């Protein structure tokens, strides 16, 4: 069964320029998108690649913890949570949180009911 997800991005005031650029990149590219479930790993890889590019651009900044978690709702359907935050035990501020919501019974792809 094909599943589509609506993506929502929350960005937060970042501690440094690297975090600000990463949050803006994710928000500009993925906020309010509908994607197929097979695209979630590609999105994760794209964000990870951008994070690595920014770590090279800002070598004096602390790296970010980055992860993607898969959760299940009460019906057993998966939803995804991608986030980044500074790799420091004293700083628990997120740079961004990208959360997916399963799209149900909506018309997608120019009239094809999914």
Question: Could you give the order of strands across the largest sheet?
Answer: 2-1-5-4-3
SSE string? EHEHEEEEE
The coarse silhouette is elongated
Rg: 15 Å
Report the portion of residues in β strands: 35-45%
Helix content estimate: 25-40%
Largest sheet: 5 strands, antiparallel
Name the assembly state.
Answer: single chain
Total strands: 7
Q: What structural class do helix, strand and pairing data support?
A: alpha+beta
List its traits.
114 residues; five-stranded antiparallel sheet; two-stranded antiparallel sheet; single chain; alpha+beta; 7 strands; elongated
Structure description:
With 114 residues, this protein is of the alpha+beta class. The chain has one domain. It is 28% helix and 36% strand. The protein contains 2 helices and 7 strands; from the N terminus they run E-H-E-H-E-E-E-E-E. The strands form 2 sheets. It has a 5-stranded antiparallel beta sheet with strand order 2-1-5-4-3, with helices on one face. The protein has a two-stranded antiparallel sheet with strand order 6-7. A hairpin with a 3-residue loop joins strand 6 and strand 7 (112-113). Helix 1 (17-30) packs antiparallel against helix 2. The longest helix is centred in the middle third of the chain and has 18 residues, at 40-57. The mean pLDDT is 86.
